[in-house]
Amino acid sequence: MARCAGITRAGTACKGIPIDGSQWCYAHHPDRIEERKQHGSKGGRRAGRGRPQVELSAIKTQLEDLADGVLDGSVDRANASTANQIFNTVLRCIALELQVKEQQEFAERLEALEAALVQRKGKPYGA
């Protein structure tokens, strides 16, 4: 099986499989530089999947403190109830944000697969 003609950052030969009709894999193909840059910049703007975990952890801590305050009498129940409603709204926003990101990623992957299919067959998808 053919191997990519590219050289890795470590200075070793790339073990990737070349794109059809080329001597380079996707990561080393000179015609794909701009496309790779675009994908990399999108990943940076998304803030990664770790951010929601940090937000959730902070909210969980605040909710625990709120519950402790209600139980020991230092936080008024009405204030705690209002704060809890706000936390629930924030949690719904985080869930919605994750759903939107997943849909965007899915759409991008689908577009890439359709483009690969067009490149392979030479005609637009669905035509």
Describe the structure.
The protein has three helices and no strands. It has 127 residues and is an all-alpha fold. It has two domains: 1-45, no CATH class; 48-121. Helix 2 (50-72) packs antiparallel against helix 3 (77-121). The longest helix is centred in the C-terminal third of the chain and has 45 residues, at 77-121.
State the secondary-structure class.
mainly alpha
Count of distinct structural domains: 2
Shape: elongated
As residue ranges, the low-confidence spans are: none
Helix content: 55-70%
Based on the model shown, name its key terms.
0% strand, 127 residues, 2 domains, mainly alpha, elongated, 3 helices
Topology:
Layout: H1 33-45, H2 50-72, H3 77-121
Helix pairs in contact: 2-3
Summarize the structure.
This protein is mainly alpha-helical. Helices cover 64% and strands 0% of the residues. The chain has 2 domains: 1-45, no CATH class; 48-121.
